[in-house]
Design brief:
Layout: H1 2-19, E1 21-28, E2 31-37, E3 62-69, H2 87-110, H3 127-130
């Protein structure tokens, strides 16, 4: 269960970090009135006027603040190269890699599954053979 929750949290983190987000806050007299995620914050002094027409003069002491997190542009895949000076090092490297993979396969097949339990032996039902059925 915790593994599933962790996967969901990581997926949401990757989604948010790759798309970016905005947090809007509205303060009235240095007190936080509204906090909005991906939407504009509502003003405490909303009137019949439109928000675009309303200015700071009509609402003294109010302040809007936005925190914008933009996605990074550095999603380049880094690669490393390995240069071998001579053929002896190359064959030594390949031989050790093959032997290591063979040994790890052999060790994993020798281990038994600890939670495996054999099923109970089959028991025949003798009562159904003795009982006579009325047709």
């Amino acid at each position: 269960m915790t593994r599933k929750v962790l996967h969901i949290v990581v997926a949401v983190f990757i989604l948010i970090s790759s798309t970016g987000f905005t947090i809007n806050m509205h303060y009235c007299h240095d007190q936080l009135i509204d906090l909005a995620f991906l939407a504009p914050a509502h003003s405490c002094c909303d009137s019949e006027k439109d928000d675009a027409i309303q200015s700071q003069d009509s609402c003294p002491g109010c302040q809007d603040e936005s925190i914008v997190v933009e996605p990074g542009d550095d999603f380049e895949v880094s690669s490393s190269t390995c240069k071998f000076e001579n053929a002896h090092n190359t064959t030594l490297f390949l031989t050790s890699a093959v032997l290591h993979s063979i040994q790890s396969i052999d060790e994993s097949t020798k281990n038994e599954v600890p939670w495996y339990k054999k099923p109970p032996p089959y028991q025949e039902v003798i009562l159904s053979q003795i009982q006579s059925y009325l047709i």
